[in-house]
Design brief:
Blueprint: H1 7-10, E1 27-29, H2 40-49, H3 63-73, E2 80-83, H4 85-97, E3 104-107, H5 113-121, E4 125-128, E5 148-151, H6 163-171, E6 178-181, E7 202-207, E8 220-224, H7 226-236, H8 246-257, H9 259-282, E9 286-287, E10 294-298, H10 304-312, E11 316-318, E12 330-334, H11 338-352
Helix pairs in contact: 2-8, 3-8, 4-5, 4-7, 9-11
Length: 353
């Protein structure tokens, strides 16, 4: 540790993103990227944006993008907040809406950035254990708290919490903010956005990295009632007034406006996922029910780390988590193209044989 570091930095345990190896002929199934490229309209919009106007700052409020997102979801533009990827949106939500005297609640197996934000901002938290079948039990959250956050579908388990259960959770937590992180909702669930008018404490966070194939542009957004959006904006404008550049805004607008392409590619991912689940089950894997663009699977006779290493030696990368211990047997496998998933299954057949 450097003597120049602040005490905050000394105490941090940073988030570790999925590996981005620079290897040829790699089957990359470790970071939940979409196997299909973005809408052709996005590429046209990016080319058009490469102009003399780059000398000017982008719109600090991203008004065109907020209007496009609002039209996509059937909400008002003043109910939309945008940021540099959903990670930045979540970071602002932790500081703006979840930093209170009481600890916040989130699952013990969930997106590992949540405890990192708590460490960064000095937020107390309690991890709520998932059930033995890795499900969120909403009754466990019917206790005093400073806020609640969870992904739906959950990550890395891929399990979906039904919309009715989310509403039960909101009914029992009217005095604290509930953040539903819907990074993967477009691959098999019903969004909680429709509950926002009824529940002023609800904030729903989305990303364009997954179902819109725009992980490289870094665009995320939140939808909630104006009071919550104003809090996020106050934090944003105290941190970075221009979080989205001109390319990100133009590309994201084009993507939100091409719903046909969005539906086409996400349905292809879902179809491939169902085939992958069937193929893995035929090999003896236990696969948790998935509503995401990835699956969470373990084999009763093989260690998760061992399987991941064996696949890597065959130029196939999947994600393995060592902690917490009860998910160490599992692999998180991104749903790729049909060809990529076939290569994975064939490699597993060889390894298991």
């Amino acid at each position: 540790m450097s003597r120049y570091w602040s005490e905050v930095v000394r105490g941090l345990s940073p988030y570790v993103p999925g590996e981005q190896p620079k290897l040829a002929n790699l089957v990359k199934l470790n970071t939940n990227e979409n196997p299909y490229g973005p809408s052709p309209r996005v590429l046209e919009a990016l080319r058009a944006e490469a102009a003399d106007s780059l000398r000017l700052y982008p719109d600090p409020n991203s008004d065109r993008l907020r209007e496009a997102i609002a039209a996509f979801h059937g909400v008002e533009a003043n109910h939309v907040f945008v940021g540099n990827g959903s990670d930045e949106v979540l970071a602002h939500a932790f500081l703006a809406l979840l930093k209170h005297d009481a600890p916040i609640l989130f699952p013990d197996v969930t997106y590992s950035f949540y405890p990192v934000y708590c460490g960064l901002y000095g937020i107390e938290y309690q991890e709520v254990p998932l059930t033995d079948s890795f499900e969120i039990r909403v009754e466990d959250y019917f206790v005093p708290n400073g806020g609640i956050i969870f992904p739906n579908p959950n990550a890395p388990t891929a399990r979906l919490l039904a919309l009715g259960e989310i509403e039960r959770l909101l009914e029992k937590n009217s005095d604290s903010v509930v953040v539903v992180d819907e990074a993967y909702i477009d691959f098999g669930g019903e969004s909680a956005v429709g509950l926002i008018k009824k529940y002023p404490q609800l904030l729903v966070v989305h990303t364009l990295s997954k179902s819109h194939s725009l992980a490289g542009l870094r665009v995320g957004y939140a939808i909630g009632q104006a009071e919550l959006i104003q809090a996020l904006t106050r934090v944003k404008d105290s941190f970075n007034s221009y979080p989205l550049d001109r390319f990100a805004q133009a590309g994201a607008v084009a993507s939100m406006q091409d719903r046909e392409y969005f539906d086409q590619t996400r349905h292809k991912v879902v179809a491939t996922r169902e085939r992958l689940v069937s193929d893995l089950a035929a090999l003896g894997f236990e696969v948790l029910p998935s509503a995401a663009n990835f699956v969470f699977a373990r084999h009763p006779q093989k260690d998760g780390a061992e399987l991941a290493a064996s696949l890597r030696s065959r130029s196939i990368i999947v994600r393995h988590f060592k902690k917490p211990a009860r998910i160490a047997p599992f692999l998180r496998i991104t749903v790729g193209t049909d060809e990529q998933c076939a290569a994975l299954v064939n490699a597993l057949k060889t390894i298991l044989a």
